[in-house]
Specification:
The protein is an alpha+beta fold. The protein is built from 15 helices and 29 strands. A 13-stranded antiparallel beta sheet has the order 23-24-27-28-29-17-18-19-20-21-22-25-26. Helix 4 runs parallel beside helix 5. The protein starts with a strand and ends with a strand. The relative contact order is 0.10.
Amino acid sequence: MTAHGILIIGGTGVFGKRLVRHLSGQPGLALYVSSRSAAKAETFIKTLKRPQAELRPVTLDTSVNLHEQLDNIRPRIVVDCSGPFQGAGYETAQAAVSAGAHFIDLADARDYLAGFADALDVTARQNSVSALTGASSTPTVSTCVARHLTKGWQRVDTVDIAITPGGKSEVGQSVIKAIFSYAGKDVPSWVTGRLSKTIGWQSARRIHIPGLGHRRVAAVETYDAEYLGPLLDVQSRVSFSAGLESRVEQLGIEAIAALRKRRIIGSVNALIPLLLKARQITRIPTSTSGGMLVKICGLDADGITTEAKWSLVAHQDHGPNIPILPAAAAIRKLLSGSAKQGADFAHAALSLADIQSEMHAYDIKTATSLVKTHKSIFETALGPQGMNALPQKLRQFHGASGPVLWSGQADVTRGAGALSRLVGWIFRFPQSGQSVPVTVSIDRTRTPQEGPIEVWTRRFAGKSMTSVLSGQGGGLMLERFAPFTFGLKLEQNAKGIQMPLRHWCIGKLPLPGFLAPRSETTEHIDGDGRFRFDVRLRAPFIGSLVHYRGWLEPTHEG
């Protein structure tokens, strides 16, 4: 029986080595382990214990006579593990499919992924082969998880993805170079239901992965942010974050990103060798455990508000194997003849089960959880009778399954005094203006401490103001503008809602009532059937802080 020839480009690199190890236990394969130095490839092959596949070291430089080298090897499948793919072209992929070989890469670079199908599809079909891109953690694992979690759902509101490797994992120069290629620069993001921008390695936050604990992550450049939005018709947000276990390394990258954002420094490529050496120290207090978290909120097949989570935890430094598992699963598909001809994303040929079947050899565990919410925090605060007494549009706005994105206009008047301006800066109050474009996104989620909450992000002409609301029952609502929390009394009638302030605190420390700001907040429905809001805030000894009033309508009615 003739062995299936598989050429691993970058076979002695960080991910190439792991893919070779993974495949070496499968009989019937002939693995061509490529390196610019055949001796280096041969040395690596000797480290593999009891391989079942044939292992053949080859010298290969993709920039020199690649077509001729492919003619000599005649592989059935070519897998490109070399990277980095930021700024890369499609010459390697074109050469592989032109030679009649299936092609797989581990690319995660946005521009490369976006243009792959257009560049390769015709040639791949002409040669009756498949060309699959992105066979890595992103976008293949993330997309397969997202499709699995939302199968049959009526609506997807938010998608949040985070990856955090173990600090002791080996990191190659190409990975560091890729990270710094976009640190402090604009990267695509999906916000308020449309493509937008954020800053690479900024917008840091803490996440909790079951079985791993808390990690700090920040926004990174991936194609998921702009790809999953249209694919799943995400109503509000798609975020993709990554974090390093070493706090020194994580804060260092964030600091460099902040300096580059302000154009204080430029390229840091010259520092990469030094940073790699520094990791010998910064990785000392870290572990060999890493993880991935995908959290999706929306309406399930029955129209019930649902929060779905998929988590992955890898121990014993097995986390770096995750990026190569989609490629391994894709190889099985190609060898079985079940993959379609042409060029596409690897996830088009794979399911989550295909990828998880490759995890059995590793200390990798996955878990899925679903939490359904039948009552919104306003329903909790007002009770069924109070909620049903509201006008239909207000019930829609505050209901558990209501639209999560609303847009309209507002007139804003800011206080004029110095103290008023200071308070406005602290709380990020909107600037004065007439007919200011405004959107309100409502993120319905939950925390172990507070239970169901709503994160309201109000954007006035693109400037954000965020607060966290939770229902207390008995007509009480808490609204947190960290570190302050304000207790509101919901007073409802057939016309609408009023929300006078009853108490306030900083953290858990109550503050004097005579110093509390005065809130005049009302919601009602106007003659055109639009949701109307009117918020006026004043403070003792300061006077007017801000007054904004306007209207909103659902951005998506479905």
